[in-house]
Amino acid sequence: MLKRFIKRLLGQQSNNNMATRVTRIAVTDHGVTRERISPCALQVTDTLQQQGYSAFVVGGAVRDLLIGAKPKDFDVVTNATPEQIRQLFRRAHIIGRRFRLVHVLCGNETIEVSTFRANAHDGDERPTDDNGRILRDNVFGNQASDAERRDFTINALYYDPGSQEIWDYCGGFTDVRNKTIRMIGDPATRYREDPVRMLRGARFAAKLEFHIDPMTRAPIAELTDLLDNVPSARLFDEMLKLLLSGHAQRAIHQLRAEGLHRGCLPMLDNLLEQESSAQFIAAALHNTDQRVQAGKPVSPAFLFACLLWHPLQIVWQQRMDDGETEQNALFAAMEHTLEQHRSQIAIPRRMDGNIKEIWSLQPRFAQRSAGKALRLVTHPRFRAGYDFLLLRADADSSLRPLSDWWTSFYEADDALRANLAAGLTEPMPTKKRRRRKKPTVTPVAAEPVNE
Ligand code: ATP
Ligand code: MG
Fold first, then answer.
1. Measured by CB atoms within 10 angstroms of the end CB, which terminus of the chain is less buried, N or C?
2. Is residue 63 part of a domain?
3. How far apart are alpha carbons 308 and 355 in whole angstroms?
4. Do 31 and 172 belong to one domain?
5. pLDDT digits (tens, 9 = 90+) for 163-173
6. Which pTM does this prediction carry?
7. Does residue 207 line the site of ligand 1, with CB under 6 A?
């Protein structure tokens, strides 16, 4: 009893943003009107409220609306249980084993509806591993406890579409105004509970152009090793969110500033330090950011093909130096590279095929004979391989004549293509053929394995 009382007392001293009181902010003060909420989310909150439950839009959507950004999705939280929620909607199903929540579908939108959860300080301790990482987190709670178990104050704002009020338990509204990322509760404890929060902080800082509060930042340097204990599939998910955030370049810069790139992005660690690969990765991330910001699709496989391109080339070259043919060396190097990195980042095996295809098309761009060029341009994955070649040329100007030739060829009509193809004679010199005395003269010169 006494121990718990002291613990709470100490906890509250250091955690002045704990969810003790709620501040209700009127629409006249925050400016987010109900029309800004998606119709599907409104239907969910309205239905729940009509049945007498409380229901709020919560998390990233409220934060994004406050800064005038378009939310990625709308999450709803309520005091109704998953079964009670499901009964109210025609197209709704309960998902999740660890913590059950409900997906409500309308049109092609899905709203994730969860029940208020309890926090770590309610006496009922949650099981943790030796480092304090929470292993299970599945207790229902009330709205105040739900706010307290969220990560950052800016992510713990609740919007009531009925009254258009924002309910703020942790000071998130002021933090949004001041562009501050502040951990709820004691930062070190919260990172220990879930080390991924360190990555989330860096991601939000980059995405929102907010700064990380000094107290929230301070413990990170000492805790980065905790990321080693995070299941690799979870790291993969988080890394993908970061890479596809539209601000990957800035986010990676932020991670490096926090010393986090070693723990979460081991593959980026060396790559970004070597000038040759850093340029290629910078070009890849820049391209990805531009595509995401323009609302164009980005394939995760393409992104990982980029990130692993340099490690692949090292192994590929080594094998060729050991006497393997270019083709055999490439196939062995692809297997090796993917396996080697899978232990750190759980790149799903279903992506392997696409990644390998992009890679294996690269030497084919340099083998230019009329027949091969005409066949390659109709390859189902030509576009991905060609985009990849453009990126390589962005980072290495010696590849530009090759990529320019392919651009003209790709954009040409049939007659012009035939003409261009006819202008090609022998295959291009490649590493393997480098020892030839006199390379064939062709319109462009390229080395497929030397970025
Ligand atoms: P995004 O715009 O990237 O979707 P988000 O804030 O909505 O940002 P989500 O991962 O969708 O992030 O999570 C929704 C909400 O759940 C968060 O706003 C936060 O309140 C809570 N949350 C998510 N992950 C954690 C975590 N690791 N620890 C505590 N709370 C979390
Ligand atoms: Mg979200």
1. N
2. yes
3. 9
4. yes
5. 999 999 999 99
6. 0.79
7. no
